[in-house]
Amino acid sequence: MFASCVSAASARILSRLCALVLVVALGLGSELRVRVRLADGLVTEEVLEADNERDSISLEFKQGDGTLITFVADFKQDVKIFRALILGELERGQNQYQALCFISRLSRNEIIPSESMARLRQKNPQAIRLAEERRGLEQLEMSAAVNLSQASQLSSHIHNMCSEAREAIYTRESDVRHWLDKGVDGSIFEVLPQTTEAPSFQACHSTKDLWQPCLCTYSLRLEWYPCQLKYCRSRDTTGKGSTYKCGIKSCSKGYHFTYYVPQKQLCLWDEET
C-alpha cells in the first residue's frame, strides 16, 4: 500500500481547498464556524458540523501551508477519521495533491455528543478562540492499510472521506484486532511491513534516496474542539439540588502518525532539519 497522489483535475478537491465550504442538510445538521489561532500564529476558520441523523460530528480547517485537514467522529460505529489533503511539490515530481487517511477507534470522552454539538452557538463569531485544555500528543503507529472498497464495514463515512486517498488509508494493529473481534471481515486489512520485520527501514527524514522504502511520519493538531460538557448546580424553592448542562469545555490535541511507505517520494514533508 502506498500514499496516493491525487489528480490535478479533481475539481472537487480544489474547490474544498479554496472555499472550505461544508454543505449542511436542512433539518439534519448544524454548522458552527470558529476562528482559531494555529501553532504558527496564523488565524484560520474551523467549520464544525453536527449531523444528528447519522450521529456524527465533522471538523474541517485549512493550515497555513494550504493543507486541508478534516476530522470526523462517527458515534454510531465508535470510529474517528482524519484526512489530510496535502499540496504536492510539483518541482519534485509530485502531483498537485496528496491525500492521507488515518482511522482509529473513537472513545466516548473525546468529544461532545452530536446532539449537544448541534445546539452550540457563539455570541461573538469574530473572536479568536483558545482551547481551555491542551491535551498531550498522541502517538499512533499505523501498521495496517484499509481496503477502501470494503471500508463501509467500519464506518459509512470512510468512502466519501477517503476516496481520494485510495491506497493511503491506515489504521493501528490494536484497532484491527478490536474490529476482527466484532466480526469485521479480515480481508479489509493488509498488514504493512514493520520495523521488527525489516530492521533496515529508516525514518524517511534520514533517508536520502527518494525511491527507497522508509517510515513516514505525519503530524496534525486539532486546535479547538468541544471535548466535554459542563454541568452547573441549581436549587429549587424547596432547596433540592439538581444539575443541568451549562456550557462546554474546549480542548486542543495533537496526533503523530507513523506508517510505512514504499518510497520516500511519498513523504517529502518529512525532511531532516
TrEMBL record:
InterPro entries: Oaf, Oaf_C, OAF_N. It holds the Pfam family OAF_N. Residues 203-271 form the Out at first C-terminal domain. Residues 30-179 form the Out at first protein BRICHOS-like domain. Belongs to the OAF family. This is Out at first protein homolog.
